[in-house]
Each structure stands twice: as C-alpha cells, then as structure tokens.
Design goal:
Number of strands: 0
Largest sheet: none
Radius of gyration: 16 Å
Number of helices: 8
Structural class: mainly alpha
Mean pLDDT: 95
Strand content: under 5%
Helix content: 55-70%
Bound molecules: adenosine-5'-diphosphate, magnesium ion
Distance between the termini: 16 Å
Order of helices and strands: HHHHHHHH
C-alpha cells in the first residue's frame, strides 16, 4: 500500500478533524466529557508535524506505525489508545505482506480489518454498544465484500465510507454500554456517539484520499 495514499489520508484527516473539532466536542459534551474533538485535533496536528517534508518517501506501513505512536502519545482518552493502536496494527499488518501489483484492495481490506479487530480486542466493545465500532464494523464488512468481488480500491472505500456513515447515524437510538457514555444509562439514548462520528469522518477521508 503506497505511502502516498497513507500520507494523503493523514493530511486530509487532519484537515477534516480540525474542521469538525467543535462538532465532535459537542457530541462528546452531550454523552461524555466534551474532549473528543479537542483531543483528536491535538493528535492529528502532531501527526502532521511528524510527516516528512520532502526527501525520501516514507513507506505506507512505517507512516501508519509512526502516526499510531503519535496518536497514542498525544490524543489521550479512550479514543487515543484505540485509534493509536489501530493505526499501529494496520501498519504492522501491511508490513507483514510482500508488495504485489493488483492486490491493493485486498491489502486495504486486511489492514482495515486488523485495525478494527485491535480496537475490538482492546476496548472489548461489541456491536450495538454505541461506540466507534458501530461505524467501523459495517465499514470493514463493506470493504471486505468489495475486495472479494474484485472492485477497485476507490469503489471499496466509498462503500466502506457510506457504511460507516450509516453505522454512525444508527448509534443515535442506542443505549451506551461501554466507555464513559455508559455512565449515563438511559440518558445516552438519542445522541450520536462521538467516536462513531469521528470514525465515519476518518473512513470518508480515506475514501476521498484514494479517489483524489
Ligand atoms: P474519553 O471517553 O476517554 O473521554 P474520547 O472522548 O476521546 O474518550 O472518545 C470517546 C469515544 O471513544 C466514544 O464515543 C466511543 O466511540 C469510543 N469508546 C469509548 N470506549 C470504547 C470501547 N471500550 N471500545 C470502543 N470504543 C470506545
Ligand atoms: Mg471524551
């Protein structure tokens, strides 16, 4: 998987997280502690600062691993550990496999799946718990079916982004049973989960980076 795509994705994500900072923070203020947008923005600024300025291009797996370490060290909160681990895991998964032509959509599906599995393993949330996984699991499934069907990466990622957006919206009526929002009990119902919203944003940025 090319370092070019990973870098475009990280840059676009940083831009969109900055734009969505207030919205994500408001979502988290409703059912959490109001730091999600601020935390992610701080992390993505640090990721941007760590990107090379010219010189030797950095391979995709290494970019992902270093972005993940930066996110772990700067974001804080549940999402910092979960997103940071996921990025590192995606990088590891890609580094494990030899580069070959024509398998980009399979590489993407494998890396995406490994990242999302690491979030599930670390956070022990299940589908329907009203977390980022409710956006990420449908996105993983959509990308996997696209890869199996032999679709182009752009089409697979667009389907994944649509699935993530639908999954995020579907968290509104759910009762939170994991993370800080679960402390609210029934009062978590009727609100969009902030982590599901940021996940949908990040997957859309990936789809847009792939098609630009
Ligand atoms: P914190 O709750 O520690 O302040 P953030 O505000 O950065 O962390 O992120 C909150 C988001 O993290 C939630 O909206 C939810 O999507 C996600 N989250 C929290 N706990 C878990 C978990 N155990 N598994 C998966 N996602 C989780
Ligand atoms: Mg929070």
């Amino acid at each position: 998987l090319s370092g070019g795509l990973v870098e475009r994705w990280l840059r676009l994500s940083a831009e969109r997280v900055a734009d969505a900072r207030v919205r994500l923070t408001e979502l988290d203020a409703a059912i959490g502690d109001g730091d999600h947008g601020i935390n992610l923005d701080r992390g993505f600024r640090a990721v941007l600062a760590g990107l090379h300025g010219g010189g030797e291009p950095v391979p995709g797996p290494e970019l992902l691993r270093s972005a993940g370490r930066t996110v772990m060290g700067t974001v804080g909160g549940a999402s910092g550990a979960l997103y940071g681990r996921a990025l590192v895991r995606a990088g590891e998964r890609l580094a494990d496999r030899p580069a070959a032509h024509g398998q980009e959509v399979l590489d993407l599906a494998d890396a995406f799946e490994a990242a999302v599995e690491s979030i599930a393993a670390l956070g022990r949330a299940r589908p329907g718990d009203k977390t980022m996984l409710d956006a990420l699991l449908p996105a993983t499934a959509a990308l996997r079916s696209a890869a199996t069907a032999g679709l182009e990466p752009e089409a697979g990622l667009a389907a994944a982004a649509d699935a993530a957006a639908r999954g995020a919206r579907a968290t509104i009526p759910l009762l939170a049973t994991r993370g800080r929002a679960s402390y609210l009990g029934d009062r978590s119902i009727g609100h969009l989960d902030p982590g599901a919203a940021s996940s949908a944003l990040l997957v859309r940025a990936l789809a847009d980076a792939a098609s630009s």
